[in-house]
Amino acid sequence: MLGKATTAFHSCRYVDLSRDLPKLVVGMQQLAAADDDPHAYGLLAHAYTLTSRLLIKLDAVDLGLLAADRAHTFATGGSDPVLLGETARNKSILIRKAGWPDDAAAIALHAADQLTGTDPRSRSQRGLLLMSAGYTAARSRDAATLVDLTEQARRIADGLGDRLMLPTHGGGFGRSIVDLHLISGHTAVGNPTAALAVADRVKVKNLPTIERRARYLTDTAAAHAMLDQRTECIDTLLQAERIAPQEVRTRPAVRRMVGNLMVTGRISPDLRALSARLRLP
């Protein structure tokens, strides 16, 4: 069930995931209670981590914080520092969304500091945490910290070579994943031209999952939107919709982007049809 749910997330099948996750969490809780086994607690932490990642997608901050806190608690009872780092990363994201950027950055950076040594998984998770803290800085318009933390992550990626898949983070870690975070970071800090320059060097086929490819496309569309490049923005959103309809139709950030396009300029047939599929008012 955990493998099936993880595949659903990577494939942007969020309707299936929202149906299966409650049963998965209940089953994992029963397993952990019966066995009192660190491995069982680790599996339960995985289930709650997946739940928090879905709630992040949906901007469901309160429920997401509850899931992330439980994931962190159960990961603490397990034996995998990388999983513990991922639960901290998700908690940091949700705390940023709740409006506490300083606390969010502190959580991510503290978790990154706990991942020492040469183990590739630990180094990869450290890179993800640094990038998350960098994006939090970008949301506060701190471009210097965004660049500094992202470059630290890039040096880790350069030292690892090929992309490393992590069971706790389906996007894995590598140079293309660093670039993906930098696109969203430059856009958040208000520099869409820099975001598109990074986007130009990313090869979509190198991104490891449908979810990561769709996220690349929606983030690139957001940069086009900031530059009032409406045609490019809509075309990129349509590309994302073709490979991951639910990523475009359910994420509040994407729905807001399409809604803004509907009220700020010429409405093309493609835009009107996309808005209809999103069932926007």
- How many alpha or pi helices? 15
Mean pLDDT: 92
Q: How many strands?
A: 2
Distance between the termini: 37 Å
> Can you tell me the residue ranges where pLDDT is under 50 for at least 5 consecutive residues?
none
* Largest sheet data: 2 strands, antiparallel
- The SS-based structural class is mainly alpha
Order of strands in the sheet with the most strands?
1-2
Helix/strand order, N-terminal first: HHHHHHHHEEHHHHHHH
- Beta strand %: under 5%
The helix content is: over 70%
Morphology call:
globular
Q: Report the C-alpha radius of gyration, rounded.
A: 19 Å
Can you offer a commentary on this structure?
The protein has a domain at 1-79. 78% of the residues lie in helices and 3% in strands. The protein is built from 15 helices and 2 strands. The protein has a two-stranded antiparallel ribbon. The chain is globular, with a radius of gyration of 19 Å. The model has no long low-confidence stretch (mean pLDDT 92).
